């Protein structure tokens, strides 16, 4: 028997899509692996078989077997497995979505949100089914159990996949914490008086507390194999979910759609009326790092809220310095303060300065606070018996707080230099670290430094990320048996934890989409996406230098999204035409969509996809004039008239034709064209404005972004 764990981790397994045709339409048939191999590949090579929503299989194959199958008739594509990485309540109040919002209880209880993540902790109070009726009749899923795991009328489904077979517990139970945190952020019930050791105390709740949750465990601490992601999409679509929340992305960054499991799975989802919300990634603030860039996905950036968690350090001279950490421990005593680089006898100065485990001399460190040069959860100082640690890793700005295994704080570049100067000029430097506290952040919302930025590296005419949501210092449910830091000696156990990441922003948007869905169950995924984007709250460009490449359309406003007035609707064939125009082969498009297409019939420009935002890459230092065509559907007042307004910018000339559109009925469509002209823009620059359609009640806002690339 082959070692699946070894082969999957090395990405030697292959995902293959085989579709046989009967007449004009595809039929759901998948050949077994042995049917493709002249030698008779062993049955135990089959990892997954996809045959409910799309056709194909994943198998552990040698290079020779992969090549042999790829050459066979009927095989669209064979590509290697990819490991995806995970991208984690005051947040709802901050975006203007209080507990008292208007709800449609019956319709909300019919909404099923699917979570692709690390599983779930079913015993959490956030997933109690007290007062819940049985699951909706459309539900067609299962609840896999490990003997102790059970579902209920709130948590209606749970499935696990062979993450890394033979080494990990095969259970839908969450042993990492990430999945429980995201699931409760989307649809957790209100739980009063939660906190992390008294920090960030308040009521925890999801966006749609009455909605149902279905969990698909595709990840563990080592990652999320792409074949598991595809299998989960296949199951979720067949199970009857309405919204999917996917807080993960490819390690290597944005992928060609024909090789991206999330892009393929989510395309099949939209054809069944299911919207996928995906985290944008945590590789910011570098440009072009955004993932989840397919136009049918709702890509989510992370921003701050008006609650900031800080941990102060008080030097022996009484000087107090503010740092960013979630120090759950009580304040330390005032003890000697030392530099890690000076307390080693067996490691290099770099390793000691970074406080690498087993590098610090216990006799020199025990009972002291040590300064470390590299961000880490604190294993080195903890093993050496340190009283605490200060991380001064040279970041100019720290905008989120981290958790450590011992009393700790993290200082920005300026504060770090200040503490080191104190050590160098003081005979017996001392310090104490205080317990964390919450303060008001008046600058929020600001896109987090870690949040991945655009421009979109795959589809140059599609602005990504799409939208921004709270993703910094978010408190939500957590498994009591999951480690807070991953360090064995850290024995803390909590039911609610504070995490940061675009992983935490993604479920906010999935929850907002589920809220909109509860009012408009008939709306398409594109209509829900448009409603969220065009009603988003504009972000402050002066605090976000990458402007729309950081925050997309702005910060979600779920209440306004319920009544957007107009929506930009998009159909499956529109996306297929875009793929043709963008240069995807008919074979690649078949792999993505499952449909046989003829790209020779594709006309128009990629910028004419009926998207709620507008973007174009223009040549540097040359004048430009380009058109965008769009259509909007009336979902507001049956009889209404909208007038176009464009925010003036001296460097752009924007005209809208017609600039007034009138409707006589609901669901009526009207088309218009936007012309954007300007003089040459410098290399590597971004210029943006926005178009707003208003009838005096609704404001339907679309960003317009012109940008140039780097000099080549």
From TrEMBL:
Pfam families: fn3_6, Inhibitor_I9, Peptidase_S8. InterPro entries: Peptidase_S8/S53_dom, Peptidase_S8/S53_dom_sf, Peptidase_S8_Ser-AS, Peptidase_S8_subtilisin-rel, Peptidases_S8_3, S8pro/Inhibitor_I9, S8pro/Inhibitor_I9_sf, SBT. Keywords: Hydrolase, Protease, Serine protease, Signal. The keyword Hydrolase applies. PROSITE patterns: SUBTILASE (PS51892), SUBTILASE_SER (PS00138). Residues 109-554 form the Peptidase S8/S53 domain. Residues 608-705 form the Subtilisin-like protease fibronectin type-III domain. The keyword Protease applies. Residues 41-87 form the Inhibitor I9 domain. GO terms for molecular function: serine-type endopeptidase activity. One of its GO terms (biological process) is proteolysis. It comes from the Eukaryota. The active site is at 117 (charge relay system), 178 (charge relay system), 503 (charge relay system). Belongs to the peptidase S8 family. This is Subtilisin-like protein protease SBT4.3 isoform X2. It comes from Cinnamomum micranthum f. kanehirae.
